[in-house]
Amino acid sequence: MLAAGLLHASWHSLVKSGQNQITVLAGMGAVAGLCACAALPLVPTPPPAVWPVLLLSVTLHIGYKLCLAGAYMRGDFGQAFPIARGMVPLFATLIAFVSLGQMPSITQCVGIALVSSGLLLLAFDKLNGLAPWPLLTTATAAGAAVAAYSTVDAYGTRLFGDWLGFTAWLIALDSLTFFLVSWVLRGGNLWVELHATRWRILVSGLLGLLSFCVFLWALSRNAVGAVTTVRETSVLFAMAIGVVLHHEALSWRRIGGAVLIFAAIVVIAI
């Protein structure tokens, strides 16, 4: 999951730095979708009970991508990413408790609280206490969508009984559907933009695919709240990427947020 966090931050950075986030998301989805389609003949066909779960998950994934693109259009990487990710562990734990009956342990609750506090501290340091409502709304909605699809996907992998099969079908369906949505939104410009950013799309697609496969593998074996919390180490990697590549300054709030997130990982690990 630490490796998945690094991959997650990397592809988000590539998406944010693209000229049009919806186009990059559609392109990287197409890359992941082609890989998933190649795996479909090797995995079982979903039973009837799994199809509603897949359709719900696809809907949530598309909503997440649209909200994420909206957040990146309204704020920089250091603003949108921490706000969206800071909401995920709390939402995911609550949804998993209500829908799946997963009761987090005391240590998991402490870890979730720590990582959420650290992420929000990072976010509001960049915002200097002034959160633009359009950015805050889209980033929070993206975080809620991640929490919702994490719970749905955890249920789907268990219901299917084959995490790889569920992952392949989900990625294939999600990629195709979002590409069609992007085509409607971008029109003929989509093909020109895809060609102009083809290398960025290829790299981000492979990074996103690998990161998501690790994430679903972990969800099939562990509690949703704990898995999503450890995944949020992606913000630490995002902070390092911002400092090294984008020359962003460190502050006591950012350092404090990093310490809280590290403490959360230790608490959950033990």
Automatic annotation (TrEMBL):
Can you name a GO cellular component term?
membrane
SUPFAM superfamilies for the chain: Multidrug resistance efflux transporter EmrE
What top-level branch of life does the organism fall under? Bacteria
Keyword set for this entry? Membrane, Transmembrane, Transmembrane helix
Q: Is Membrane a UniProt keyword of this protein?
A: yes
Q: What is its main location?
A: membrane
Q: What membrane topology is given?
A: Multi-pass membrane protein
Q: Which residues cross the membrane?
A: 22-43, 49-68, 131-151, 163-185, 197-218, 224-245, 252-269
Residues annotated as domain EamA: 141-269
Q: Where in the cell is it found?
A: Membrane
Q: Which family does this protein fall into?
A: Belongs to the EamA transporter family.
Q: What is this protein called?
A: EamA domain-containing protein
Q: Which organism is it from?
A: Tardiphaga robiniae
